[in-house]
Design a protein that fits this description.
This protein is α+β, with helices and mostly antiparallel strands. It contains 6 helices and 5 strands, in the order H-H-H-H-E-E-E-E-H-E-H. The strands form 2 sheets. Strands 4-3-5 form a 3-stranded mixed beta sheet, with no helix packed on it. It has a two-stranded antiparallel ribbon with strand order 1-2. Helix 2 packs across helix 4 and helix 3 packs across helix 4. Bound molecules: zinc ion (ZN) (3 copies). One zinc ion binds next to helix 1.
């Protein structure tokens, strides 16, 4: 997995936006300039971005931008699987693999903020089985692991 310091981030954002266009065409959804801009802002880093930071960034470009502008765009992007919600940081991050449904666990670096995805269906079904053993009917799971990323560990 690439660390943000050591890759061509511009190319990374460009390919993410191209993927978003493909997905929207496929799902007959409209990637309006505003939705596209919010996605681009979230892709501005490989970290978690809060809704208020997004609003502040949008307002720099358009002082008329209001919270619903951001929330509606976020909802759209979440629905299409282009971004993920990070509960423990109360924010959002880009999806690294939006072109395919996937279960997702997150590794979140407390030092540099990097968020990486794991796609372990084994882990997801083990968790589901445990919940069911406890007589619980799981509908959704969030797994967020905090710590230090590879880049920070080796620095
Ligand atoms: Zn990047
Ligand atoms: Zn993802
Ligand atoms: Zn880190």
């Amino acid at each position: 997995m690439t660390s943000p310091q050591h890759h061509d981030h511009e190319a990374c954002v460009a390919s993410a936006l191209a993927a978003a266009e493909r997905i929207c065409t496929l799902k007959k959804a409209r990637l309006t300039p505003n939705r596209r801009r919010v996605l681009e802002l979230i892709w501005g880093s490989h970290d978690v971005v809060g809704a208020y930071d997004l609003l502040a960034a949008l307002q720099k470009e358009d002082p008329a931008a209001k919270p619903p502008t951001v929330y509606r765009a976020l909802e759209f992007l979440l629905d299409l699987g282009l971004i993920h919600r990070i509960e423990s940081a109360n924010g959002f991050t880009r999806c690294e693999a939006p072109e395919g449904a996937h279960v997702c666990q997150f590794l979140i670096c407390d030092e540099c903020g990097l968020v990486e995805e794991l796609h372990s269906s084994k882990l997801a079904s083990a968790l589901e089985a445990q919940a069911e053993d406890a007589g619980f009917e799981p509908t959704f799971q969030t797994v967020e692991v905090r710590g230090r990323c590879r880049g920070c560990v080796s620095a």
